[in-house]
Amino acid sequence: xxxxxxxxxxxxxxxxxxxxxxxxxxxxxxxxxxxxxxxxxxxxxxxxxxxxxxxxxxxxxxxxxxxxxxxxxxxxxxxxxxxxxxxxxxxxxxxxxxxxxxxxxxxxxxxxxxxxxxxxxxxxxxxxxxxxxxxxxxxxxxxxxxxxxxxxxxxxxxxxxxxxxxxxxxxxxxxxxxxxxxxxxxx
Length: 187
Description:
Organism: Steatornis caripensis
Function: Involved in rRNA-processing and ribosome biogenesis.
Domain UTP23 sensor motif region: 130-149
Oligomer: single chain
Number of strands: 3
Structural class: mainly alpha
Family: Belongs to the UTP23/FCF1 family. UTP23 subfamily.
Shape: elongated
Strand order of the largest sheet: 1-2-3
Distance between the termini: 121 Å
Subcellular location: Nucleus, Nucleolus
Helix content: 40-55%
Strand content: 5-15%
Mean pLDDT: 78
Protein backbone atom coordinates (compact mmCIF):
# COMPACT_ATOMS: atom_id res chain seq x y z
CA UNK A 1 0.00 0.00 0.00
CA UNK A 2 2.84 2.40 0.77
CA UNK A 3 4.35 1.87 -2.70
CA UNK A 4 1.00 2.64 -4.36
CA UNK A 5 0.59 5.80 -2.25
CA UNK A 6 4.10 6.92 -3.23
CA UNK A 7 3.35 6.30 -6.93
CA UNK A 8 0.12 8.29 -6.67
CA UNK A 9 1.95 11.20 -5.07
CA UNK A 10 4.58 11.30 -7.86
CA UNK A 11 1.88 12.11 -10.41
CA UNK A 12 1.29 11.40 -14.09
CA UNK A 13 4.95 10.65 -14.88
CA UNK A 14 4.69 7.24 -13.18
CA UNK A 15 1.07 6.44 -14.04
CA UNK A 16 2.11 3.35 -16.06
CA UNK A 17 4.18 2.01 -13.15
CA UNK A 18 1.19 2.56 -10.85
CA UNK A 19 -1.06 0.52 -13.17
CA UNK A 20 1.47 -2.31 -13.25
CA UNK A 21 1.86 -2.27 -9.44
CA UNK A 22 -1.93 -2.42 -8.99
CA UNK A 23 -2.07 -5.71 -10.92
CA UNK A 24 -0.07 -7.53 -8.25
CA UNK A 25 -1.43 -8.78 -4.95
CA UNK A 26 -1.35 -6.04 -2.33
CA UNK A 27 0.16 -7.06 1.01
CA UNK A 28 -0.93 -5.28 4.15
CA UNK A 29 1.80 -3.50 6.04
CA UNK A 30 1.93 -1.90 9.49
CA UNK A 31 1.91 1.61 7.95
CA UNK A 32 -1.76 1.50 6.95
CA UNK A 33 -2.72 4.82 8.55
CA UNK A 34 0.61 6.61 8.15
CA UNK A 35 2.26 5.63 4.85
CA UNK A 36 6.06 5.79 4.56
CA UNK A 37 8.32 5.66 1.49
CA UNK A 38 8.18 2.53 -0.65
CA UNK A 39 11.73 1.40 0.13
CA UNK A 40 11.23 1.82 3.90
CA UNK A 41 7.99 -0.17 3.72
CA UNK A 42 9.63 -3.01 1.75
CA UNK A 43 12.51 -3.19 4.22
CA UNK A 44 10.10 -3.35 7.17
CA UNK A 45 8.15 -6.20 5.51
CA UNK A 46 11.18 -8.43 5.09
CA UNK A 47 12.25 -7.82 8.72
CA UNK A 48 15.27 -9.83 9.89
CA UNK A 49 14.61 -13.34 8.60
CA UNK A 50 12.10 -12.73 5.75
CA UNK A 51 9.40 -14.95 7.32
CA UNK A 52 7.05 -14.67 4.32
CA UNK A 53 9.85 -15.46 1.81
CA UNK A 54 9.43 -12.25 -0.21
CA UNK A 55 11.51 -11.36 -3.25
CA UNK A 56 12.46 -7.70 -3.67
CA UNK A 57 12.35 -6.33 -7.22
CA UNK A 58 13.92 -2.90 -7.51
CA UNK A 59 16.11 -0.66 -9.63
CA UNK A 60 17.01 1.49 -6.60
CA UNK A 61 20.67 0.84 -5.74
CA UNK A 62 20.29 2.11 -2.15
CA UNK A 63 17.45 -0.32 -1.50
CA UNK A 64 19.38 -3.13 -3.22
CA UNK A 65 22.41 -2.56 -0.98
CA UNK A 66 20.22 -2.60 2.15
CA UNK A 67 18.52 -5.81 0.99
CA UNK A 68 21.92 -7.48 0.39
CA UNK A 69 22.80 -6.85 4.05
CA UNK A 70 19.90 -9.08 5.12
CA UNK A 71 20.17 -12.83 4.76
CA UNK A 72 17.73 -14.88 2.72
CA UNK A 73 16.15 -12.14 0.61
CA UNK A 74 16.34 -12.74 -3.17
CA UNK A 75 16.85 -9.61 -5.24
CA UNK A 76 15.41 -9.06 -8.74
CA UNK A 77 16.26 -6.26 -11.14
CA UNK A 78 15.82 -5.49 -14.82
CA UNK A 79 18.59 -5.19 -17.39
CA UNK A 80 17.27 -3.94 -20.73
CA UNK A 81 14.12 -6.06 -21.20
CA UNK A 82 15.18 -9.02 -19.06
CA UNK A 83 14.43 -9.78 -15.43
CA UNK A 84 17.55 -10.96 -13.61
CA UNK A 85 17.80 -12.75 -10.28
CA UNK A 86 20.87 -11.44 -8.47
CA UNK A 87 23.39 -13.93 -7.07
CA UNK A 88 23.08 -14.62 -3.33
CA UNK A 89 24.76 -12.05 -1.10
CA UNK A 90 27.71 -13.08 1.11
CA UNK A 91 25.44 -12.61 4.13
CA UNK A 92 22.94 -15.12 2.67
CA UNK A 93 25.68 -17.63 1.86
CA UNK A 94 27.08 -17.38 5.40
CA UNK A 95 23.59 -17.82 6.84
CA UNK A 96 22.97 -20.97 4.78
CA UNK A 97 26.36 -22.40 5.76
CA UNK A 98 25.56 -21.79 9.42
CA UNK A 99 22.16 -23.48 9.06
CA UNK A 100 23.67 -26.53 7.41
CA UNK A 101 26.20 -27.09 10.14
CA UNK A 102 23.99 -26.40 13.16
CA UNK A 103 20.47 -27.50 12.30
CA UNK A 104 21.11 -30.80 10.60
CA UNK A 105 22.52 -32.47 13.71
CA UNK A 106 22.56 -30.62 17.06
CA UNK A 107 25.89 -30.38 18.89
CA UNK A 108 24.98 -32.72 21.76
CA UNK A 109 23.94 -35.40 19.25
CA UNK A 110 27.25 -35.02 17.39
CA UNK A 111 29.15 -35.65 20.62
CA UNK A 112 27.05 -38.69 21.47
CA UNK A 113 27.60 -40.10 17.94
CA UNK A 114 31.38 -39.71 18.30
CA UNK A 115 31.30 -41.46 21.70
CA UNK A 116 29.23 -44.36 20.34
CA UNK A 117 31.60 -44.78 17.40
CA UNK A 118 34.58 -44.93 19.75
CA UNK A 119 32.86 -47.57 21.90
CA UNK A 120 32.10 -49.72 18.87
CA UNK A 121 35.54 -49.18 17.35
CA UNK A 122 34.15 -47.49 14.25
CA UNK A 123 35.98 -44.21 14.73
CA UNK A 124 38.46 -43.39 11.99
CA UNK A 125 42.06 -43.64 13.03
CA UNK A 126 44.36 -41.20 11.28
CA UNK A 127 47.39 -43.50 10.86
CA UNK A 128 45.47 -46.45 9.52
CA UNK A 129 44.37 -46.38 5.91
CA UNK A 130 42.77 -49.28 4.14
CA UNK A 131 44.10 -50.27 0.78
CA UNK A 132 41.79 -51.39 -1.89
CA UNK A 133 42.32 -55.06 -2.61
CA UNK A 134 42.70 -56.14 -6.19
CA UNK A 135 40.30 -58.86 -7.15
CA UNK A 136 41.39 -61.84 -9.19
CA UNK A 137 40.42 -61.36 -12.76
CA UNK A 138 39.46 -64.04 -15.22
CA UNK A 139 41.31 -64.87 -18.42
CA UNK A 140 41.41 -62.45 -21.27
CA UNK A 141 38.21 -63.01 -23.27
CA UNK A 142 40.09 -62.60 -26.55
CA UNK A 143 42.42 -65.46 -25.67
CA UNK A 144 39.45 -67.77 -25.13
CA UNK A 145 38.25 -67.60 -28.72
CA UNK A 146 38.24 -70.79 -30.76
CA UNK A 147 41.06 -71.15 -33.26
CA UNK A 148 40.09 -70.61 -36.85
CA UNK A 149 40.89 -73.43 -39.27
CA UNK A 150 43.08 -72.52 -42.19
CA UNK A 151 41.55 -72.96 -45.61
CA UNK A 152 43.56 -75.23 -47.86
CA UNK A 153 42.71 -77.34 -50.85
CA UNK A 154 43.19 -80.51 -48.84
CA UNK A 155 41.17 -79.17 -45.97
CA UNK A 156 38.22 -78.40 -48.20
CA UNK A 157 37.95 -81.84 -49.74
CA UNK A 158 37.25 -83.78 -46.55
CA UNK A 159 34.66 -81.28 -45.56
CA UNK A 160 32.77 -81.85 -48.83
CA UNK A 161 33.07 -85.59 -48.46
CA UNK A 162 31.62 -85.46 -45.00
CA UNK A 163 28.63 -83.51 -46.14
CA UNK A 164 25.93 -85.69 -47.54
CA UNK A 165 23.44 -84.17 -49.82
CA UNK A 166 19.91 -85.18 -49.33
CA UNK A 167 18.02 -85.83 -52.49
CA UNK A 168 14.45 -84.92 -52.70
CA UNK A 169 12.18 -87.90 -53.08
CA UNK A 170 9.37 -87.57 -55.48
CA UNK A 171 6.02 -88.93 -54.77
CA UNK A 172 5.86 -91.78 -57.28
CA UNK A 173 2.19 -92.44 -56.70
CA UNK A 174 1.16 -89.12 -58.12
CA UNK A 175 3.61 -89.40 -60.99
CA UNK A 176 2.27 -92.86 -61.93
CA UNK A 177 -1.29 -91.57 -61.73
CA UNK A 178 -0.49 -88.70 -64.05
CA UNK A 179 1.17 -91.07 -66.54
CA UNK A 180 -1.77 -93.44 -66.51
CA UNK A 181 -4.17 -90.56 -67.13
CA UNK A 182 -2.07 -89.38 -70.05
CA UNK A 183 -1.99 -92.90 -71.56
CA UNK A 184 -5.73 -93.23 -71.28
CA UNK A 185 -6.27 -89.92 -73.01
CA UNK A 186 -4.04 -90.94 -75.87
CA UNK A 187 -5.97 -94.13 -76.45
